[in-house]
TrEMBL record:
<dbReference type="InterPro" id="IPR050275">
    <property type="entry name" value="PGM_Phosphatase"/>
</dbReference>
<feature type="signal peptide">
    <location>
        <begin position="1"/>
        <end position="18"/>
    </location>
</feature>
<dbReference type="InterPro" id="IPR013078">
    <property type="entry name" value="His_Pase_superF_clade-1"/>
</dbReference>
<dbReference type="GO" id="GO:0005737">
    <property type="term" value="C:cytoplasm"/>
</dbReference>
<keyword id="KW-0732">Signal</keyword>
<dbReference type="GO" id="GO:0016791">
    <property type="term" value="F:phosphatase activity"/>
</dbReference>
<dbReference type="InterPro" id="IPR029033">
    <property type="entry name" value="His_PPase_superfam"/>
</dbReference>
<dbReference type="Pfam" id="PF00300">
    <property type="entry name" value="His_Phos_1"/>
</dbReference>
<protein>
    <recommendedName>
        <fullName>GPI anchored protein</fullName>
    </recommendedName>
</protein>
Length: 358
């Protein structure tokens, strides 16, 4: 199969760069940046998205700053950081949102992670539920609607600056989550409308699990016909084959590539607030690229991160390749999987596809 340029980039076979962007998290603004914040107990809806109640250097320059909300003053602070930064440095606030609970999440909880990873996740479903490119459960839909209500509350009470750009992973659970989260919001006057770009590079880590096998471009377009799909997006999923899996290093290289298409874009520094609706593994990868501390999100959760990006030009283009790995799995349900997967003696691990996917 002849791969598109985007497909070759994702597979790590051709990555040419004329410049490198170094990313770092600007700490001191959000609770999630602090080592003392317990991710397992963090609730973004009760913590103002984690924005720390503090003063900013820009406050004294703002007329009537005492009447401004924390988010209004933070927006001015980010604006000043960009105004004072040289052309090769840019600041953005990334709202990283994890999709709501999907049927694959409930299946993993039911079977246990070891059995899920080595057998059940390679199937299309179990006769009761399907998890190929999993859709949201009713709980997942409620989690997305909870985010919608919180965004509306923040718009009304905090006069928060809503995203200037929206991006969403092409997997169905993220498309549904973004739609439920942002559709119907009464946005501030002059705000960018909710019209997310479907972006391949923000998909979940590509494993042999069928939940990571995306549907076709036509399916996505038919589901949300008014949403733009990025240039170069292939009709069928070129990347999932049910045999090889993306390594953590390969995923981080992909996440860096995605961020490189978000930062230093034609819109410039003025549009500094960006929403990315993605997945637990992809958000973890993005945070690694941003040199942020590890911070796991529950399904449906959202955290903002203030990012500094610095472009470093190269004298010539460079090419790099990050290998993928083969993932053995059982051909029958494992005998035991409390702490590790043990295949039946008659079903030794194989590296072939168990299910056809979508």
């Amino acid at each position: 199969m002849k791969l598109s340029t985007l497909g070759r980039i994702l597979l790590g076979t051709t990555v040419a760069q004329a410049a490198t962007i170094n990313y770092s998290t600007v700490t001191g603004y959000f609770m999630q940046d602090e080592e003392s914040t317990d991710a397992s107990k963090f609730d973004y809806t009760s913590e103002n998205f984690g924005l720390i109640n503090r003063t900013y250097p820009v406050d004294n320059k703002l007329k009537g700053h005492k009447s401004l909300t924390q988010w209004e003053r933070f927006h001015h602070q980010v604006t000043q950081l960009n105004d004072e930064a040289p052309n090769h440095i840019e600041y953005k606030v990334l709202f990283l949102g994890r999709h709501g609970e999907g049927w694959h999440n409930t299946a993993e909880s039911y079977y246990g992670t070891p059995a899920w990873n080595c057998y059940w996740a390679e199937l299309d479903g179990n006769g009761t539920a399907s998890w190929v490119d999993a859709t949201l459960t009713p709980t997942g839909e409620s989690q997305a609607l909870k985010a919608n209500a919180f965004w509306q509350k923040q718009i009304h009470e905090q006069r928060i600056h809503t995203p200037d750009h929206y991006y969403v992973s092409p997997l169905t659970r993220t498309l549904q989550t973004a739609n439920l989260t942002f559709t119907g919001l009464v946005l501030p006057k002059g705000s960018a409308p909710f019209k997310p770009t479907v972006k391949e590079l923000f998909r979940e880590g590509i494993s042999i699990h069928t939940c990571d096998h995306r549907r076709s471009r036509s399916y996505i377009h038919d589901l949300f016909p008014n949403w733009p799909i990025e240039e170069g997006f292939s009709e069928e999923d070129e990347l999932w084959d049910g045999v090889t899996a993306e390594s953590a290093d390969a995923q981080d290289a992909r996440s860096a590539q995605a961020l490189g298409q978000v930062f230093f874009a034609s819109s410039g520094k003025k549009e500094a607030f960006v929403s990315v609706t993605a997945h637990s593994g992809e958000i973890a990868s993005i945070l690694r690229v941003l040199k942020h501390r590890e911070f796991s999100l529950n399904t449906g959760a959202v955290i903002p991160v203030l990012v500094k990006a610095e472009k470093v030009e190269h004298g010539a283009s460079t090419t790099s390749s990050v290998p993928w790995t083969v993932s053995p799995h059982c051909t029958e349900p494992p005998v035991t999987s409390v702490s590790a997967c043990v295949c039946p003696s008659s079903a030794v691990p194989v590296t072939t596809v168990l299910a056809t996917g979508v």
